[in-house]
Design goal:
The protein is α/β, with parallel strands linked by helices. The chain has helices at about 45-55, 75-80, 95-105, 110-125, 140-150, 170-190, 200-205, 225-230, 245-250, 270-285, 300-310, 310-330, and strands spanning about 5-15, 20-30, 35-40, 60-65, 70, 80-85, 160-165, 190-195, 210-215, 215-220, 235-240, 255-260, 265-270, 290-295. The chain is elongated, with a radius of gyration of 23 Å. Bound molecules: adenosine-5'-diphosphate (ADP) and magnesium ion (MG). Magnesium ion (MG) binds next to α1.
């Protein structure tokens, strides 16, 4: 029994009314104690997957088990032992932070005194002790996300689902959230399933990651494995004259182009230490000057680009804007 993965997903599929194929026959195995990342752009099917695994949404076909319980037949058993931090904010704005915690604790039949003690400990963990008696309506975006996190922990779950835990947060608050999440794995050995479209987040937190797009899993591995699967280094040239980019591509040694636009050319070479001096002397011979130059080892963004044909970084930017607008709307109503 112990050797079974704590989460096993088989051909899980969701087609919404109207025919949208949100999750397309995915298979996953997650081991106990893992922080498992689902990385993909907006609309990839991450939230739909989480909602099925947390028994909030029934699959169209396929199945999954969480800690040996079937998501269709044993939804109550699963709900009792998991924690969920949904993408949308769920806390009641008219209640205080503490009242929200106690309310959710009562849904789980946690005795009042235990709930109070647990709440205090969790509030301390995310630095919300002082804010606890205040109405959630008055919380900042970062405070709300921290509260949502500990609401998901009030039943001391074995498995925690985090759907975009840092969506719309500023960089500093995001890094603080990462520390809390790392602490849950380190101190409690909690199994955590995390969705994100932030590459840095997955890189910082996940032991293993599946890249998802259009409802499908494209590749699974540790972040290091995925990066290592892309051989070579990436050199990014910025040109003063956009047409100079073409000239460099005529380099007789041959260059593997990854991306080219607005006078910026990205190429992959086997070993930049060796190739770059040769490329520079080629540029010099042709009288081409550069405005910028950088070399990098492959990142998860390149992995994403490789499997999906587009960059997640660019989508992330417009998404953050949307998320911020959403949060404002929520707060106003
Ligand atoms: N309730 C719904 N009804 C119909 N389509 C939906 C619903 N929820 C999500 N979708 C669609 O399913 C796809 C996956 O959405 P979602 O799971 O929210 O993706 P992600 O969380 O990765 O952004 C999208 O095309 C989205 O528009
Ligand atoms: Mg989502």
């Amino acid at each position: 029994m112990d050797l079974q993965p704590i989460i096993k997903v088989e051909n899980l599929t969701k087609i919404y009314k109207g025919g949208v194929m949100a999750v397309d026959s995915i298979n996953l195995e997650i081991e106990e104690g893992e922080v498992y990342g689902l990385l993909g752009p907006n609309g990839a099917g991450k939230t739909t997957t989480i909602n099925m695994l947390t028994t909030r949404l029934s699959p169209t076909s396929g199945n999954a088990t969480v800690a040996g319980f079937d998501i269709i037949r044993h939804s109550m058993d699963i709900r009792r032992m998991i924690g969920v931090v949904p993408q949308d904010l769920t806390a009641d704005e008219d209640l205080s932070g503490l009242e929200n915690l106690l309310l959710v604790a009562s849904f789980y039949d946690v005795p009042k005194s235990v709930a109070l003690e647990r709440s205090q400990r969790l509030l301390r963990m995310v630095d919300l002790v002082e804010a606890a008696p205040r109405q959630v309506r008055q919380y900042s975006g970062g405070m709300r996300k921290r509260l949502e996190l500990i609401i998901g922990l009030i039943n001391e779950p074995k498995v925690l689902f985090l759907d975009e835990p840092t969506l719309g947060l500023d960089v500093q608050t995001r890094t603080t959230m990462w520390e809390y999440i790392k602490g849950l794995k380190r101190d409690y050995g909690m199994t955590i399933i995390l969705t994100s479209h932030y590459l840095e987040e997955i890189d910082a937190l996940a032991n293993r990651v599946s890249i998802v797009d259009h409802g499908k899993i494209l590749v699974t591995g540790t972040p290091a494995e995925l990066k290592a699967s892309l051989k070579g280094d990436i050199i990014t040239f910025g040109f003063r004259t956009a047409s100079d980019s073409e000239k460099l591509l005529e380099y007789p040694g041959g260059l593997e182009k990854i991306d080219a636009k607005d006078g910026v050319l990205k190429v992959r070479v086997e070993n930049a230490d060796k190739t770059l001096p040769e490329l520079l002397s080629y540029l010099f011979q042709h009288g081409i000057t550069l405005s910028t130059l950088s070399v990098q080892k492959p990142s998860l963004d390149e992995v994403f680009l490789q499997y999906t044909g587009r960059s997640l970084r660019e989508e992330g930017a417009s998404d953050r804007m949307k998320a911020m607008m959403n949060m404002r709307r929520v707060r106003k109503t």
